[in-house]
Write a structure and sequence with these properties.
The chain is mainly alpha-helical. It has 2 helices and no strands. It is 60% helix and 0% strand.
């Protein structure tokens, strides 16, 4: 994706920019696999 967005930038700069992006994406995937997406539980309304 970086290669398409910044085609004229030297390879080293693209690598430096893409490393944190890849690490963040991997971290988010790992977090979602371990913790999962929590949906709100329905609240029981007590009527009297």
């Amino acid at each position: 994706m970086i290669a398409f967005a910044l085609p004229d930038v030297p390879g080293l700069v693209r690598d430096v920019v893409s490393l944190p992006t890849a690490a963040a994406e991997f971290g988010l995937m790992l977090y979602l696999i371990v913790r999962g997406v929590r949906t709100p539980s329905p609240v029981a309304h007590h009527t009297s």
